Amino acid sequence: xxxxxxxxxQLDGLPFEEAIAKTVHLWSYAPFVNHxxxxxxxxxxxxxxxxxxxxxxxxxxxxxxxxxxxxxxDHGKIHxxxxxxxxxxxxxxxYNLVYIDxxxxxxxxxxxxxxxxxxxxxxxxxxxxxxxADLQLSKY
Length: 140
Prior knowledge:
- It is a single chain.
- The protein has helices at residues 2-12, 16-28, 48-54, 59-71, 117-120, 132-135, and strands spanning 81-88, 94-100, 105-107, 124-131.
- The chain is α+β, with helices and mostly antiparallel strands.
- It has a four-stranded antiparallel sheet with strand order 3-2-1-4.
- A hairpin with a 5-residue loop joins strand 1 and strand 2.
- Helix 2 packs antiparallel against helix 4.
């Protein structure tokens, strides 16, 4: 937890694009498990410190930790964040994405990469959005 706090403080002094890239890189390489969080029931999702303590990161948890990391840095005061459940146009894959500034930056679509909503094109359709209030980010 101490290292994560230090990491977030390091992000504070970086340009936002660099902070995003470092955050995506960190969580892309976190230990992966196939299933941990229930994608359908966000009310059961633990907070960031509980996720760190459990140290199990499926696709949903990785997206949440990317969002939490940036939101809890100084950048969180300036930018808006959304957790987006999405589905491939083929309906064969589900995605847990982080949209920043209405999709100017999209995280967790591809490994260790930041893209934009425009780059998703028609490949992905949105199932639902969860914003700060939905995620209860103010309590962190």
